[in-house]
Amino acid sequence: MRFVRALVFMALIAAGASLMVDNSKVESLMPIESAPAIVTTLHQAVGMLAVVPEDRHPYERSLFGAGWADLDGDCQDTRAEVLARESLAPIAKGCTVFRGKWISYYDNEIWTRSFEVQIDHLVPLAEAWDSGAYRWNAEARLHYANDVGDRRALVPTTTALNYAKLADDPSRFIPAINACRYILSWVAVKLRWNLTVDQREYEAITIVAKSCPNTKIVVRKANQ
């Protein structure tokens, strides 16, 4: 299993107060694919991230819905839709995807049976929660967990590697290969959903981004 687990302790910040759900301040964020896109570069996009202390309490997975949903009612849940979309080989028609060809760009492994593949929330649900999703309503969190509007948000990856990542941000996990693609995608998803970063996360992102080409980045906001 080829991956790096990098700890960045260049700065320590005071912990913020526990983030409790305040229903009077719940934000309703929905994917709006017709919204104007942000067109910038990777280095500029990193500078657009808001640096804010994070607190995971009282996160629970159920706050983002009960697993994969079928939001468009086509019989395929989000996992099946991502598998179908990302397969490099033709797949059989149906509500469930069993076989195809998927490359896990975290380690460049190739898989042909769907049960061998995990669909990773690039920015994990727990990370999204303490980066701002605690303010959202349940519908917005459900759409985040099933975001097929940006291909960077949900990616097929090797099961063992996905378990190794857990809910880590880039201060603790960056894949050993394709790190620039990973960081660009991380920044794009955070900007798409107006999610913040904490200080150590920001420093880890900055370190990697400085070693990457200043690639063009296009982000369509999920809220207006």
Structure explained in plain terms:
The protein is an alpha+beta fold. It has one domain (31-65, 75-220). It is 28% helix and 16% strand. It is built from 7 helices and 8 strands; from the N terminus they run ββααβββααβαβααβ. The strands form 4 sheets. It has a two-stranded antiparallel sheet. The chain has a two-stranded antiparallel sheet with strand order 2-8. The chain has a two-stranded antiparallel ribbon with strand order 3-4. β3 (99-104) and β4 (109-113) form a beta hairpin. The longest helix is centred in the last third of the chain and has 14 residues, at 179-192.
Task: Explain the layout of strands and helices.
Elements: E1 3-4, E2 37-41, H1 42-47, H2 78-86, E3 99-104, E4 109-113, E5 117-121, H3 125-130, H4 138-145, E6 154-158, H5 159-165, E7 174-175, H6 179-192, H7 199-210, E8 216-220
Antiparallel strand pairs: 1-7, 2-8, 3-4, 5-6
Characteristic terms for this protein:
single chain; 224 residues; alpha+beta; two-stranded antiparallel sheet; 7 helices; 8 strands; disordered N terminus
Taking all residues together, what is the mean pLDDT?
A: 87
Estimate the strand proportion. Answer: 15-25%
SSE order, as H and E? EEHHEEEHHEHEHHE
E-strand count = 8
Main beta-sheet strand count, sense and barrel state: 2 strands, antiparallel
Helix and strand content put the structural class at: alpha+beta
Low-confidence stretches: 1-25
Lateral strand order in the biggest sheet: 1-7
CA-CA gap between termini: 40 Å
Q: What count of domains describes the coordinates?
A: 1
